[in-house]
Amino acid sequence: MEKIIEESKQGESLVLENKPENTKKLFIESYGCAMNFSDSEIVASILSSNGYNTTQILEEADLVLVNTCSIRDKAEQTIRKRLEKYNAVKRTNPKMKVGVLGCMAERLKEKFLDEEKIVDLVVGPDAYKDLPNLLAEVSAGRDAINVILSKDETYGDISPVRLNSNGVSAFVSITRGCDNMCTFCVVPFTRGRERSREPQSIKKEIQDLWDKGFKEITLLGQNVDSYLWYGGGLKKDFDNASEIQKATAVDFDQLLKMAAVGFPKMRIRFSTSNPQDMHESVLHVIAKHSNICNHIHLPVQSGSNRILKEMNRLHTREEYMTLIDKIRTIIPDCSVTQDLISGFPTETEEDHQDTLSLMEHVKYSFGYMYAYSERPGTLAERKMEDDVPETTKSRRLQEIVDLQRSHSALRTQEFVGQIVEVLVEKASKKSEKDWSGRNSQSIVVVFPKEDYKIGEFVNVKITSCTSGTLIGEAVSLSEMN
């Protein structure tokens, strides 16, 4: 994976405030998307109620869990190397138990127990409530597995702990699964069908975060724009819902408005969107409420209509560009970011040029770029030959990355001379004398610490920039007027 601007949080070990009455130690490590990190918070909450405190020291853990990603082969290989590391530690601590969570667990199921002798339990994304029972099975000397996918939102009643938190920003999951069936993607197979979480439980979680001093949330899902709550069940069954259920249903723009109005001082983000599901009504909600950030992550994957059809993407190049134009009209200062794949099966040079020309039209603020990686079980793996040479994939990917870097530089340059509101999140990686935070457009801003603190909103005048970072100085209200 190649990502411009932001650093990935791959392989982060997570820690929460421990309970003095707990006697066992949990080491949990997460890879992949934000949903995995959110799920790890749910796992830690469940196990915290079952006697486990978390630790950042692998060697002292009674239980080691790795929350896995299957979106790319490289991610799976990284996880296999981590399992080798666990195996080496387990030889010196035979009481240690090791479990695999997440998408890779769902994809490989029983094979994990056979192939990876280090693994004691395998738990899919919808089965984390069963962890205490599975651990009892392991303690009795039996292998344990639960990878059954649910038709309902599984964790709406669980209050997640905030792992390794800065106390400022947090994820709030609103949907699970995906119905889109893109031919390259394993998510529908590893996370199941789309289902949405009850709105009041979402509101309750946001309230809890606000009460604890958090200043920013990200509404999270594989496809947030398809959020639809009508009383439970899968989204695909909505047509069979009662008239009352349909009349009282809540969709994404209503949920977003509910969060913005209910918590006017809380900064709100959301991710991820799919072009065919993003309706104009959502854009008007964003434009109306100043606490909703002006940033939309809008994966396109390719600029070629032929390749989009092969990918089973449910939008065309023209529809995507029309949506971009609407965003620019309704939310003029909105940043748009992307996912792109180079070298999808049968991709020609003309297809690749279509992608570059679409990028020129949009000029994304930043993006996530990949060379195509064949994933077992997907339609592309079963029906399409991976026929683009690796050298060609790499060359095309580099051209995409280079163009994105130039567009990122152009987008950050637009902020020079402006005053932006920044939520202070942490110290700058490059200097302990500076704070780092993000503006509404999700671009990193660095400025001198002075007397400001983490969690404060600060007005910063941008004086210079790189292709990925805005650099400036805090200004007072009097200086702004």
TrEMBL record:
GO cellular component, one term: cytosol
Domain TRAM: residue ranges: 413-476
Cofactors required: [4Fe-4S] cluster
Residue stretches making up the MTTase N-terminal domain: 24-140
Provenance organism: Flavobacterium franklandianum
Keyword Cytoplasm among record annotations: yes
EC number(s) from the headed UniProt entry: 2.8.4.3
Function noted in UniProt: Catalyzes the methylthiolation of N6-(dimethylallyl)adenosine (i(6)A), leading to the formation of 2-methylthio-N6-(dimethylallyl)adenosine (ms(2)i(6)A) at position 37 in tRNAs that read codons beginning with uridine.
GO molecular function: 4 iron, 4 sulfur cluster binding; metal ion binding; tRNA-2-methylthio-N(6)-dimethylallyladenosine(37) synthase activity
PROSITE patterns registered for this protein in UniProt: MTTASE_N, MTTASE_RADICAL, RADICAL_SAM, TRAM
Residues in Radical SAM core domain copies: 164-411
Protein name, entry field: tRNA-2-methylthio-N(6)-dimethylallyladenosine synthase
InterPro entries assigned: Elp3/MiaA/NifB-like_rSAM, Methylthiotransferase, Methylthiotransferase_CS, Methylthiotransferase_N, Methylthiotransferase_N_sf, MiaB_methiolase, rSAM, rSAM_horseshoe
Amino acids binding [4Fe-4S] cluster 1: 33, 69, 103
Pfam families listed in its UniProt record: Radical_SAM (PF04055), TRAM (PF01938), UPF0004 (PF00919)
Tagged with keyword Methyltransferase: no
Keyword vocabulary terms for this entry: 4Fe-4S, Cytoplasm, Iron, Iron-sulfur, Metal-binding, S-adenosyl-L-methionine, Transferase, tRNA processing
Catalysed reactions listed for this entry: N(6)-dimethylallyladenosine(37) in tRNA + (sulfur carrier)-SH + AH2 + 2 S-adenosyl-L-methionine = 2-methylsulfanyl-N(6)-dimethylallyladenosine(37) in tRNA + (sulfur carrier)-H + 5'-deoxyadenosine + L-methionine + A + S-adenosyl-L-homocysteine + 2 H(+)
Oligomeric and partner information: Monomer.
